[in-house]
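Hi R.,

Here's the input for the phenylalanine complex you asked about:
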Amino acid sequence: MVRTDATVIDSAGDAWTGRAGFIAAAIGSAVGLGNIWRFAYVAGENGGAAFLLVYAVIVVLIGLPVLLSEFVLGTRSRGDILAAFSAPGAGRWRWVGVVATLVAFLILSYYSVIAGWACRYFWAYASGTLAALPQEALPAEFERFASDPRQTVGWHALFIALAAFVVSAGVAGGIERASRLLMPLLGVIIIVLAAYAVSLPGAGGGLVFLFSPDWSALRHPQLYLAALGQAFFSLGVGIGVMVVYASYAGNDGRHASVAAAVAAGDTLFAVVAGMAVFPIVFAFGLDPAYGPALAFVTLPQVFAVMPGGWWVATAFFFLLSAAALTSAVSLLEVPVALLARRGVSRPWAALGVAALAFVVGVPSALGTGPWRELTIAGLQILDAIDFVSANLLLPVVGLAVVIYVGWRLPAQQAISASGLPHALGCAWLLVVRYVAPLAMAVFLLTPALV
Ligand code: PHE
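And here is the predicted structure with phenylalanine in place:
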């Protein structure tokens, strides 16, 4: 049955206050470390502009249709990711919900570690420790911090506790309120930073890197998988978050426009963040393929030399932590909603899941320190888990989502839940049935075959 009231309160009382709340929370989930930390390093490792081009095409052709598919599933599920996959005669599909929940949990475990880095940088700037250091000392300073287990584990604990706090405050009172407050602020800060970075002498190299494609990079099959993984990670699809979030919004028939707003906002944010990071990388002669620490090593160097840098750095790392928080709460919400549906109280569920995710995340926190030598296929623990989750698990769950929505749900029901006008709805369903699964399968398989 399709609900029509935008603020319907379901049986557990979980709902956004309205459409604006839904959009704020969905963008809060999408915009996070993925747009700044992850986008910068993955684009940096994969040739910059060529990557951005493929990324944009994938967002439109695959990301957006998958996002809308998850919204469609959400209208059927009322906060319960397992119920989303329970079309008549489709019992086995519930395992997709189980896998999605586990993946959300796994990503949360290491996401919180990186978010802990952001919190630490915020604190170190706010308290004046970092502001006193000269520009050249900053990369070594990052190394020193990242190799100290008390620091990395401690900040990881603090961050995940914060996420648990927001989630236990409820859907509208915690998650929505935090997103509404923090997202606009973050947008302003990133634009100011990009404007400053672009005006630096030597910034041009960064803009060329980001916007002028070196076509030969398109020959590397890993680029496509990296772009697919980044698109899924950044939009936050293939994990059940958007299913659960859509279930808290009544179906007012406008999910397609919300999906478009989320995809556009998220992509724009990543591009502007790239315009903040890469000009700095080039102006200071750093390597764009620096790896996961890129944003933590490059940006502080410009903060050290820009007028008012201390103030901007403090604001930036505060807002990076905040963006990470609104994303982490969405990851935490997937297992918590599932437990809350089954009678566990929300605060206890949030606390329990967060505590477990903390423990599972500890190896990631140690992986830049005492466990540095422990690598998996040449990657440190955190990078390896990140690679497998984003490049493998998210697309696989995404694939299951489109196959389910495209082939198991009655077409008429899917189109009407999408809220698209009939012709556009049919086009969307064609993409969901054929284009998206095929493209995903090809991107997933080629790196393994060549
Ligand atoms: N999209 C978030 C980011 O870019 C991370 C995230 C991934 C959130 C998957 C929810 C689901 O940081």
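One thing worth noting: The first helix runs from residue 19 to 30.

Cheers,
M.
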